[in-house]
Amino acid sequence: MRKPIKIEDYRHLARQRLPRMVFDYLDGAAEDEIGLNHNRSALESIRFNPKRLVDVSQRSLATNLFGKRLPAPLAVAPTGLNGVFWPKGDLALARAAAKFDIPFILSTASTASIEEVAQCSSGEKWFQLYVVHRRLAKQLVGRALNAGYTTLILTTDIAVNGLRERDLRNDFGLPIRYTPRVMLDGCLHPRWSLDLLRHGVPELANFKGADAQDTEIQAALLSRQMDASFDWEALKWLRELWPHTLLVKGIIDPLDAQRCTELGADGVILSNHGGRQLDTCLAPIERLEEAVSLTDKPVLIDSGFRRGADVVKAIAMGAQGVLLGRALLYALAAKGEAGVEHALELMFSEIDRTLANLGCASIEDLNGDYVRSPF
Ligand code: FMN
Q1: What pLDDT, on the 0 to 100 scale, is given for residue 356?
Q2: Ligand 1 atom 13 nearest Cα
Q3: Which ligand 1 atom lies nearest to the CA of residue 109?
Q4: Distance between CA 163 and CA 216 in Å, rounded?
Q5: What is the mean pLDDT of residues 229-233?
Q6: Which CATH superfamily is domain 7-372 in?
């Protein structure tokens, strides 16, 4: 393929470079993947209502989020196992985000540690928390605080792991199991395999050395399951623990969004985990306007965002920011840090072009009248 000109091109390039089992882990979703496709069709079903004869010769994508001025309402979504897509993938994403001055969100399930990422980039860093065991969560939160992360994000949509059937069929997991099929897959994707040989098999970096003496923590880690008992009371506990901005991710029901902020969260991230957890879930964009109407705190959103126009639609419908997940991972997997930078350039320029043709000079002036949605 010639030079990629859109995120979908990066998806094709990622498919070429990655072994099938790794591409499927990135691209795939839960069960029949109806939720995955629905995220896209919900965004596509929204139409623009442009305004004419507006001076759009000077345009601005800049916006305020949690007291900071951002050049665009974007953040890099937390994603686990980034090191399998590209060597030191978390660092590549963090550095690209810093270059564009947007927040990078490090996953608990990252392949570079909280501290390593803090050292590699001077940009704004947020930490996403999975609660496997409360004592372990407390330690991770303390480490993120010490390392200078400014925002904590609690992910709430993994009570148990989603049934990702592509991963099941491919026997995908860490550590990678070298079955004959996996070896053949690796041989057919030599560039990826050479990188793996050179840099070693990535590991879950934040759990390394986690309380070897604490048998409860070790058992929880071995089970590879989240603490499914985490509830509203536990959210209060976490609020006490974290002194800075706290966001709750994985919210779909607007009443949950309202309850989170009433309990002291500084905002919510509407998300269905990109369709990777509960299949046939509503798309977050379908509940956005109602969630915004029920809380006075920022509502961010992700799941299915592949185009600048998608971002403009969500901002017009009241979101304060959009997290980019697979959109950047495809570019990471295809071309590493340079790919992520280019994908962000594409996003910025698509947002800018959409604003111009919509007749809106500043992203901060967007409102619901610029769109018509069927929901
Ligand atoms: N969300 C988390 O909160 N923590 C994770 O560790 C995490 N890992 C992910 C790994 C992959 C490969 C993908 C694609 C998503 C992951 N997510 C995780 C969900 C993303 O944060 C985000 O909600 C999702 O990617 C948005 O959907 P999109 O990829 O369609 O944009």
Answers
A1: 98
A2: 79
A3: 6
A4: 26
A5: 97
A6: Aldolase class I (3.20.20.70)
Specify the pLDDT at position 124.
97
Which amino acid residue places its CA nearest to atom 19 of ligand 1?
A: 273
Q: What is the DSSP letter of 264?
A: T
261 annotated to bind ligand: no
Backbone angles phi, psi at 115, to 5 degrees: -75, -40
Between the CA of 127 and the centroid of ligand 1 the distance, in Å, is 13
Give the mutation target among 105, 269, 276, 303 for probing the ligand 1 site: most ligand atoms within 8 A of CB. 276
Considering all CA atoms of the chain, what is the largest pairwise distance in Å, rounded to the nearest integer?
69
**Tell me: the pLDDT tens digits for 166-200?**
999 998 987 777 788 888 999 999 999 999 999 99
- Nearest C-alpha neighbor of 79 from the set 103, 99, 109, 100: 109
- Mean pLDDT confidence for 55-62: 98
Give how far Cα 328 sits from Cα of 90, 163, 198, 254, 335, Å.
Answer: 11, 23, 24, 27, 11
Is the minimum distance from the CB of 79 to ligand 1 under 6 angstroms?
Answer: yes
- Calculate ∠ Cα 41-43-44, nearest 5°: 60
Q: Whose CA is nearest to atom 7 of ligand 1?
A: 79
SS3 274: helix
Q: Which residues belong to the active site?
A: 273
Determine the straight-line distance between the first and last CA of the chain, rounded to whole angstroms.
38
**103: its two tokens:** 């927040």
303 annotated ligand-binding residue: yes
Annotated ligand binding at 175? The verdict is no
